[in-house]
Amino acid sequence: MAKWVLDAGHGGSDSGAIGKNGRREADIVLEAVYETKRLLERNGEIVLLTRASDVYLDVKDRVDIANNWGADYFVSFHMNSFIDNSVTGTEIVVFEKGDKSEELARFLKDEILANLKSKDRGIKEASYTILRQTKMSAVIIEAEFISNEEVEKSFDSIKYGHMVAKACLTMVNKVLIDTPIKKPKTPTREGWRICIGYYRDYEEAEEEVLRLQKEGLKDAYVIPYPEDN
């Protein structure tokens, strides 16, 4: 069991990148973290969100949340953007390679690339504050370019969250299990009959009813079956 901080980038006054048709990076990643949270918790992991609604948090707030909670892993969700709207692909960013952050980054990259059929833009190093100052394994996911109109149109934030959850569970040697909880069907009849047994001899059946009544089952009766039974 691990403690995961899931960080939905941007939020509030900071919408992040905005696609040509108006989709906001901040909204996409918030939906994604909720799905990742649901799946990680379903599989026994412990999860904390840096933000659970469309609010603004600066980088220091996000770092402090993770460090003060004593998280094992920090995963920051983002979309990418570029002036050339033909660019596509997925990349993962770590502070430096050669540790558990890179291992998690590889699981994330492989899972996302396999499902999105996305271009591999690799695992990159960067000295971002949110990576440099967190005291646990930390990654930033740049999942595709919202600046690409086709990506903006087709990108599924729930699927994004599902892919991240699957990779995170792989990191802790778990296989994702997502069995929907089925609600019991509501009976449509007013009542139900319980049959105790079938007797060919009437007196034997009557003796059994008397025995059941003595044991407290007052509503026990002999019910005749049709001839062909």
UniProtKB/TrEMBL annotation:
Keyword entries, A-Z: Hydrolase
Gene3D superfamilies given in the database record: Zn-dependent exopeptidases (3.40.630.40)
InterPro entries (alphabetical): MurNAc-LAA_cat (IPR002508), N-acetylmuramoyl_amidase_3 (IPR050695)
Keyword Hydrolase: yes
KW Hydrolase (keyword) present: yes
Domain MurNAc-LAA intervals: 63-173
Record-given protein name: N-acetylmuramoyl-L-alanine amidase
